[in-house]
Write a structure and sequence with these properties.
The chain is about 40% helix and about 15% strand. The protein has nine helices and eight strands.
Length: about 290
């Protein structure tokens, strides 16, 4: 997706208004609201279904205009009078959010002339496997409310309510709050070339390189504690390729900023330590709030 200032002059004159909101492989998305308000001064006061119908009407008119221009394209570029090129109206979108290529959310109310109620979301963070499901459900609910025009004040109150629920409800387990990740580069960042040094005799923790990813760093700290508490003979360490969860920690006696764990088996001592020092507020801010 490109903004007007990034588009060459031969595609769109910089002095013109660019109504193209988004482009993907075979579709163009245009903001028709300014044109609709020009043609229908009372557009804002009309019912939503009537707005959808008026939008579809304009889209179909432009569809026919562009299809006729394909005749010129075929003749001048391909030297033929016969072609199968056509423009087709795909959907009426009442509201949408476009973040980047293949990352968007749109509320579709008509598709190919048929009335629909579809929330079409692609590529947003909460859909990824490394996004905690507890936060993912809330994120989707917020996106849907925004697209459907729920007042910001109401949405803000729901976010505050959910924040208090996450911070104060001790019944939400560390597994629900953990950030899922596969530690595919553990071997890379436990190599001396990346700044890693194993714990020296008498020390608890390894030295970790500055560029070590957060999930890997949390996994290393788990392995350090496992060994220090002499649990490594009873419980498995995190190894290359393991799927783990990790959480932020508040100030604690060991000065650990984060720690990982294996979802299927957590030593009781480590589980108690995490429950006591898990930083629920930072987890909420970093995972959900900062992405809204």
């Amino acid at each position: 997706m490109k903004h007007l200032e990034d588009i060459p002059w031969f595609i769109c004159n910089p002095k013109d208004t660019n109504f193209c909101s988004y482009i993907d492989t075979d579709s163009n998305y245009f903001n028709a609201e300014p044109l609709l308000k020009y043609l229908y001064p009372d557009f804002d006061s009309k019912p939503d279904n009537e707005k959808d119908n008026l939008l579809e009407k304009i889209a179909l008119q432009y569809q026919n205009i562009i299809t006729k221009h394909y005749d010129i394209l075929a003749k001048e570029c391909f030297n033929t009078d016969s072609h199968r090129l056509e423009m087709k109206t795909e959907a009426v979108i009442r509201s949408a959010y476009f973040r980047a290529p293949r990352r968007y959310a749109q509320w579709i109310t008509k598709k190919e002339g048929i009335e629909k109620e579809v929330l079409d979301v692609k590529g947003l963070e909460y859909m990824k496997v490394n996004f905690p499901p507890t936060f993912g459900k809330m994120f989707q609910d917020i996106v849907e409310k925004i697209l459907k025009g729920i007042p910001k004040s109401i949405i803000d109150q729901e976010i505050i309510k959910f924040r208090n629920y996450v911070i104060n409800n001790k019944n939400i387990s560390i597994k629900e709050l953990g950030n899922p990740v596969a530690v595919k580069t553990l071997k890379t960042y436990t190599n001396p070339k990346t700044g890693y040094r194993p714990a020296k005799p008498g020390s608890i923790f390894s030295t970790i390189g500055l560029k070590t990813p957060a999930g890997v760093k949390a996994a290393i700290r788990y392995n350090d504690l496992l060994k220090f508490w002499k649990l490594d003979k009873t419980y498995p360490a995190i190894v290359q390729g393991d799927k783990i969860k990790w959480v932020y920690l508040k100030d604690n006696p060991y000065k650990i900023e984060s720690i990982g764990f294996l979802d299927f088996e957590i030593p009781e001592k480590i589980s108690i330590f995490i429950e006591e020092f898990i930083d629920r507020e930072q987890i909420f801010d970093n995972i959900l709030l900062n992405k809204l």
